[in-house]
């Protein structure tokens, strides 16, 4: 797991590394700038491309000056640096790099407060005005310069953070900040890059390692973690010889109505494909033919109107409820029956979440370690309206702890909040997966992993990762515009086998 730090902790990490590696501050800046350049030259190999650097006078500006010098060493020959002298203060490392840059043939212009911004004919812009030192929204000269750069409509590569964009905390609506095509960021993605508010400012990002002390970073015990493939490889267990269907648990999916049988079929198919030893679907009687023909592997318990289904609760390793279930009185009665009779962790999705939102007392009665899988709207129905994702992130952590549940808050970087007070950001998935039924598939995977005896938090983190990874494996190499849930399901065994290879 890659711990994600807030700006204050990032500063502490820099200071710790400087003091204990030890390395001088200016050499750490040099290392960061070289890491930036290492990535940049691959993406922008044309050395005759005019590039303009906009540099502030703090350490982000210092990085900009160092990067310009290093690119000059790499024979990039049309480099212009504009220094925004909007503050009397400049950092020591900025000053040192300013002196070094003067020894090169890079053109340097100074932009004073209130003066006209010179014309810019470059093709690529490097934004090194402000980085993680941002402490208030941009105004005055900075705002004017940032608006000017955004209006140029060029390719902008931001150093560490787009100027004006808060790395963590609430992002003000319509904030003035650089709209970057690419952010090459140091050591770790900034937390707000992973939340939807970053969309106008961060088209894509790349984190480059600058050697900040891992020991120190881990000692901070950050609640925010970024899940990487190696983490999943570590927890995913192989299927052993001499195992049998009983080894891998029995999932019960309680889902579907006559017109939403698709949700029941997708979630149970996903459970079977994600490795549940046995899968049973509890569906309306009218859906039986569909189930038997689409999924011969899945067994059925049928529901009849006005009658509770007969369920042998102890038979099932886990129960998932909600996809396509509807919200009528019968669905509510069924949910209450489940909660009353089943004491192992439940997976609760879709309509079952909305039923919980309308009957909040049930939330506190869920078995410990149960898993909720809301998208944004379902989340707000459960826990109140939020005006931004930073708030939602905090609420997910608080509620997961308070209710002793795992919450999978679905988004681009889906967040799993756990009772231990952690929030895990997923790193797989792509927009081709934005299609109806994808959530039902996720529910099936979570249930299958719980049935295979993974701990609830692990089951969530793995399911979300595997779901996104299967979507990536289909969409990215094949350039698929849309990946349908049924197709993704058949990829799951392949994805899981690759992760275990
Ligand atoms: N040794 C280190 O600490 C390292 C720092 N690095 C770079 O240093 C950056 C952070 O540098 P700094 O802490 O100097 O901060 P910045 O360069 O981000 O900002 C400079 C100063 O601008 C002022 N400022 C903040 N918000 C403002 C606003 N809205 N309007 C006007 N002025 C404002 C603050 O006083 C701040 O200290 C990182 O983003 C990264 O690029 C890297 O070189 C890696 C190593
Ligand atoms: K910047």
From TrEMBL:
Pfam families: Carb_kinase, YjeF_N. It comes from the Bacteria. InterPro entries: Carbohydrate_kinase_pred_CS, CARKD, Nnr, Ribokinase-like, YjeF_N_dom, YjeF_N_dom_sf. One of its GO terms (molecular function) is ADP-dependent NAD(P)H-hydrate dehydratase activity. Homotetramer. The keyword NAD applies. This is Bifunctional NAD(P)H-hydrate repair enzyme. Bifunctional enzyme that catalyzes the epimerization of the S- and R-forms of NAD(P)HX and the dehydration of the S-form of NAD(P)HX at the expense of ADP, which is converted to AMP. This allows the repair of both epimers of NAD(P)HX, a damaged form of NAD(P)H that is a result of enzymatic or heat-dependent hydration. Catalyzes the epimerization of the S- and R-forms of NAD(P)HX, a damaged form of NAD(P)H that is a result of enzymatic or heat-dependent hydration. This is a prerequisite for the S-specific NAD(P)H-hydrate dehydratase to allow the repair of both epimers of NAD(P)HX. Binds 1 potassium ion per subunit. GO terms for biological process: metabolite repair; nicotinamide nucleotide metabolic process. Residues 10-218 form the YjeF N-terminal domain. The keyword Electron transport does not apply. AMP binds at residues 410-414, 439. Its EC number is 4.2.1.136, 5.1.99.6. Its cofactor is K(+); Mg(2+). Belongs to the NnrD/CARKD family. In the N-terminal section; belongs to the NnrE/AIBP family. Signal peptide: none annotated. It comes from Mucilaginibacter celer. Keywords: ATP-binding, Isomerase, Lyase, Metal-binding, Multifunctional enzyme, NAD, NADP, Nucleotide-binding, Potassium. K(+) binds at residues 60, 127, 163. It catalyses: (6R)-NADHX = (6S)-NADHX; (6S)-NADPHX + ADP = AMP + phosphate + NADPH + H(+); (6S)-NADHX + ADP = AMP + phosphate + NADH + H(+); (6R)-NADPHX = (6S)-NADPHX. (6S)-NADPHX binds at residues 59-63, 131-137, 142, 160, 263, 324, 375, 440.
């Amino acid at each position: 797991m890659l711990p994600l730090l807030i700006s204050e902790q990032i500063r502490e990490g820099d200071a710790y590394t400087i003091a204990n590696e030890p390395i001088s501050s200016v050499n750490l800046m040099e290392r960061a700038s070289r890491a930036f350049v290492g990535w940049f030259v691959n993406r922008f190999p044309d050395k005759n491309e005019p590039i303009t650097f906009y540099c502030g006078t703090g350490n982000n500006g210092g990085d900009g000056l160092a990067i310009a010098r290093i690119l000059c060493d790499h024979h990039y020959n049309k480099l212009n640096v504009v220094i925004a002298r909007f503050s009397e203060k400049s950092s020591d490392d900025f000053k040192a790099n300013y002196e070094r840059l003067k020894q090169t043939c890079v053109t340097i212009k100074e932009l004073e407060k209130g003066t006209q911004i010179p014309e810019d004919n470059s093709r690529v812009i490097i934004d090194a005005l402000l980085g993680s030192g941002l402490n208030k929204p941009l105004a005055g000269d900075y705002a004017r310069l940032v608006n000017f750069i955004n209006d140029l409509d060029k390719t902008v590569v931001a150093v560490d953070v787009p100027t004006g964009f808060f790395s963590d905390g609430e992002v003000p609506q319509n904030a003035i900040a650089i709209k970057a095509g690419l952010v090459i960021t140091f050591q770790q993605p900034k937390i707000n890059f992973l939340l939807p508010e970053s969309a106008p400012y961060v088209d894509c990002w790349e984190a480059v390692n600058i050697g900040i002390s891992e020991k120190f970073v881990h000692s901070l015990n950050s609640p925010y973690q970024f899940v990487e493939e190696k983490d999943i490889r570590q927890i995913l267990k192989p299927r052993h010889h001499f195992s049998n269907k009983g080894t891998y648990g029995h999932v019960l999916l309680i889902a579907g109505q006559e017109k939403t049988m698709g949700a029941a079929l997708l979630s149970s198919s996903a459970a079977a494909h994600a490795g549940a030893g046995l899968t049973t679907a509890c569906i309306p009687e009218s859906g039986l033919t569909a189930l038997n023909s689409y999924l011969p592997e899945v067994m059925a318990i049928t529901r009849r109107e006005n009658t509770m289904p007969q369920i042998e609760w102890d038979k099932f390793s886990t129960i998932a409820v909600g996809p396509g279930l509807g919200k009528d009185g019968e669905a509510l009665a069924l949910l209450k029956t489940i909660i009353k009779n089943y004491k192992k962790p439940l997976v609760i999705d879709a309509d079952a979440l909305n039923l919980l939102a309308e009957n909040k007392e049930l939330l506190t009665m869920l078995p410990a370690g149960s898993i909720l899988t809301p998208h944004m709207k379902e989340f707000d129905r459960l826990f109140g309206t939020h005006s931004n994702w930073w708030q939602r992130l905090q609420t997910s952590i608080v509620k997961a702890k308070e209710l002793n549940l795992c919450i999978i808050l679905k988004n681009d970087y889906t967040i799993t909040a756990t009772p231990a007070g952690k929030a895990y950001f997923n790193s797989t998935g792509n927009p081709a997966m934005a299609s109806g039924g994808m959530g039902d598939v996720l529910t099936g995977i979570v249930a299958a992993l719980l049935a295979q005896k993974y701990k609830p938090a692990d089951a969530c983190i793995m399911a979300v990762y595997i779901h996104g990874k299967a979507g990536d494996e289909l969409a990215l190499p094949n350039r698929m515009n849309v990946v349908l849930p049924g197709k993704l399901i058949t990829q799951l065994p392949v994805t899981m086998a690759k992760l275990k290879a």
